[in-house]
Amino acid sequence: MTVLIACDKFKGSRTAAEVCDSLRAGLLRDRPGLDVVSVAVADGGDGTVAAVSAAGYDEIKARVSGPTGVPLAAVFALDRPGRTAVVEMAQASGLEQLPGGGLAPLTASSYGTGELVLAALNEGARTIILAVGGSACTDGGAGFLQALGASLRSADGTELPPGGGALNGLTDIDLSSLDPRLADCRFVLASDVDNVLLGPHGAAAVYGPQKGASAADVALLDEGLSRLAGMLDRTPGIPPGTGLRPGAGAAGGLGYAAMAVLSAEQRPGVEVVMGIVGFHDVLSGSHPATSSSQVREPSMGRR
Question: Which of 117, 278, 102, 136 minimizes the C-alpha distance to 211?
Fold first, then answer.
């Protein structure tokens, strides 16, 4: 008999790899000699970098802005050839990164996630997987785009302040200064969220309350997201109506920014991670065991 263990993290206590190791140890204590194969998995949210690192990706440290602007140390994962990076939004812009755990529904920003993408580009990555669960912000990816070089300005010509609460003051978007390396980069939005951007099933209404938004805050955030989407829809080169696509509401609307501006391909997060860690190969028996030294290219097309 072969036993396959495929576990996600136990949030707040153990990483996916640690859970797998504990279960494996318990099984072998009871059944010495049992063939046990373990694979750490994740769903595209927090813990994704740890899961792919257990499969052989390297963890690269970067100093970025947290959701409220406080600098913090974050990591992203890079395959050994250095061409594919996994950027976990929760590392830079997640709820767990809020200072003192204080929620900031109107001012939290996705800026640090954009900085992680820049760090991945600096390492030579040309395929970037955006794992976007666990976000603290509802800014439509505005901060994310600003970090990548876009300019979002208010009526007085100054750069828009951070957070979704400021989006109602947006009067101009300039994408001409986006980092030129982005044009040669493939983006994959790894998310199990299929919400649209706006309305009762949108980013603000469904996930805003989890981030501390009151009913009045939700209305303000949804209005701001609508303004952002309306202006981007009129920007040359941006496909109109992207906000209606499933996944546009992921991560407070960062899914929308990634799909509209970076042409990101939306894929279920758990499938993306399973492709990287080789779950399907292990399940079929073509890999009898997993190893921390193995590095696999992400399999995007498998369902």
Answer: 136
Instruction: Name which of 204, 73, 77 is nearest 135 in CA terms.
Output: 204
Domain boundaries, the chain: 43-270
Helices (H), 101-184: 111-122, 142-147
Q: How confident is the model at residue 287 (pLDDT cuts 50, 70, 90)?
A: low
- Superfamily in which the 43-270 domain is placed by CATH: Glycerate kinase, domain 2 (3.90.1510.10)
* Calpha distance 207→219 (Å, rounded): 12
- CA 50 to CA 24: how far, in whole Å? 18
Instruction: Please state the pTM of the whole predicted model.
Output: 0.89
Sequence-ordered strand ranges (E) for the chain: 2-7, 35-40, 58-65, 71-78, 84-88, 127-131, 151-154, 170-174, 186-190, 265-267
